[in-house]
Amino acid sequence: MQAIRDWFRRHWVACTVVALLVIQVAQFTYVIHRESLTFDEDNHSFSGYMMWHTHDYGLNPEHPPLVKLLAAIPTLDRHLWTPPLQHRFFKNEADLDGRDWLVGEQRTAADLFLFMLTRWGRRLEPAAWERPRIRAHFSRTLELPGVRRLIEEQALELPDWAAFEPSR
To answer: Within 13 Å and on the Cβ side, how many CA atoms surround 72?
Structure first.
C-alpha cells in the first residue's frame, strides 16, 4: 500500500491530467450524441435547392455556394413546395418579423448591434435601412436617449427620412 502512495505522490500531475482528459472526452461524447455539431444543415440544403431552381444566390450568402449546390443534388428531381421568396434582408428582417426588438419584448445589446450594422449598411445597394422592418427597428432605436446622444456627439450621418432633432 505504501508503494502505491509513493508512486501516486511522484505522478500526481500526470494522473490529474489523464483524469481531466477522460472527463473531457466523456463530456464531448455526451454532447455529440445529444446535439448536432452542425445545426444549419437544413438552411444549407434549402439554399442549395433554391439556387438550382431560382438561380437566387442571396439565401444564406455568408457561405460559399459550392457545398450547398452539391448537397442539394439529391433533391433536384423532386418538386418540393417552397415558400415564395419575399426578398428580405436574408436574416435580420426575418428575425424581426412581428416584433419590435430582436429578443422578445425588451431591448437588448443585439438591438444596438443591429442599429450599428444597419448604419454601416447605408452604402449597400439597396441600403440596409431601405428594408421596411429594418427601417422601423432603426427608427425605434434612434428614439432612445443614449443613441440620440451618441449620434450628436459623434456627428454621425443619418438618412434624410430619419426624424432626429438634436437636443439643445
So the answer is: 21
